[in-house]
Amino acid sequence: MPRTTKKHPTQAIGKTIMVVMMDVxxxxxxxxxxxxxxxxxxxxxxxxxxxxxxxxxxxEGNGVLKYLCIWExxxxxxxxxxxxxxxxxxxxxxxxxxxxxITQRARGVYTQIYPPVGAFEDHAGFHPEKVKA
Length: 133
Description:
The structure is a single chain. The protein has a single domain (about 15-115), classed as Alpha-Beta Plaits, CATH 3.30.70.100. The strands form two sheets. It has a four-stranded antiparallel β-sheet with strand order 3-4-2-5, covered by helices on one side. A two-stranded antiparallel sheet has the order 1-6. The protein has helices at about 30-45, 80-90, 95-100, and strands at about 10, 15-25, 50-55, 65-75, 105-110, 120. It has about 130 residues and is of the alpha+beta class.
């Protein structure tokens, strides 16, 4: 039976992601996760231009940091905004304590190059030549 070609749906998302990876000793996991989930995520998502965030914990692997957060942004501008600077200056005992637990950190900001707009939700029967900007 021939495969039918369908238009691949996309979802509207920002064109920039920021990937943050961190390592924390196991004895500080609970406090680190409390800070990240209850303070850091809600705080950052108040900044205009932040779209979403998803957190992950490494299941297995060597040479990779334990925690990963993928932040979705409309563009890189929120990272240099007055709102971001105000949050950095806002006092937080929990944040200051948790920063002391972080043993390694890596961060990268990426701009989407393909597809030109949105994201593919279904790759079944994917045909790149049929994607339009």
